[in-house]
Amino acid sequence: MNKQLSAADQKKLLVALKKMGEDFQVGQDKAEEKKWTDIEVPLSLADALARLTKTELSAIRVNLDVKGASALNKKELSALLAQHIIEALPALLLSFDLTRYNILKQITACGGFANLPLEPRQVNYFTERGLLFPGKYKEQNVLVLPVEVLKAFAACDDASCDEAASRNTELIRLTFGLLYYYGTLNIDQLAELAAAHTEKVPSIFDYLNLIKDADHYYKYNIKGDSAGYSHGKASNAENVKKEQEARKELPFYPFTKEQLLLAGEPGFVDRNSAYQAFVDFIDGNYKIKREEADELIQECVFAVQNDRTPNQLFQYLQEFLEIGSLEMTKAFMEHIVQLHNHTRHWALKGHTPNELSPEPSKVLVQAPPGNGKVIDFTAKKKIGRNDPCPCGSGKKFKKCCAN
């Protein structure tokens, strides 16, 4: 916050920001409520598209890659999309995983409409592809599959679609599991590591489209660029890549297929013994919900993976928890050290510091500002700035963990 602002002005600014946030949420709620207006069942595709705004129709046009239609009015665009939605359905089904494929199967089995507990963004995903349309029928929120889409789906629904959905599910989860543990990978690394655990991998173009489309539905929030993909929590993917490249002799940790598939599930968190012990410690010493303690440690893990120091983790926790005594400070630092040593570091290619050290694990902790010293927190041994860094990078300490 600008230090030149007076206390009164700062208070006004905070109030204004809070009001903006509340107004935005009200707008979101109204837009969501508008989607669930009365709807007819059965529903024609023309009537379904007529319920949408021009902006919503344009989203379908973009997702189905309909060319030369940006200048059409709403009526013309609706007519064109009605044709393309049916034509695009077979290829679209072959890009779905089992979750999305089974949603359409379930609604088809229910006669074309059903009440399903999908999140708003997931409802939007299907609507933006012209497949499912939300509304209220007999006082119940339902998702409706238009009659034409229902017939087209029934004609396409066969063993090949089911097999494709199974393959896609495996490949998607393997990919997101790899990014969870390695942080960032270029396209070739990603495809090669994923291919090592599955029998059939599509072309790079189809593979990347598959991952991009899955991210739209699940919101893993991965970051993609021309070089590859990174985990959404990777604050400096370039730095992670440089650290990995500096350890050319260190192979990527050999995760099993089962480990990667588990890590690729939405919302997965690697709650190892040190993680659980830290959550237990906070839960037992502070009057906060266990879920809140868990969220704090989740953020600490991502901070470790982004090469934040133990002192920085301690400062972060101080923003939420009162750590007044020297005894509590020592207890927190012990848990931070254990968490650091048991966390799979992106810079270490998925290894933990414990796995790379032949001796009991050591974590470097910077002393409080002022004395300019860095010590080995576990062994209480001073590390020289020109000594080899204990992390195994091969660099001098001053150019590695001390930096």
Automatic annotation (TrEMBL):
Pfam families: SEC-C. It comes from the Bacteria. Transmembrane segments: none annotated. SUPFAM superfamilies: Sec-C motif (SSF103642). This is Zinc chelation protein SecC. It comes from Paenibacillus contaminans. The lineage of its organism: Bacteria, Bacillati, Bacillota, Bacilli, Bacillales.
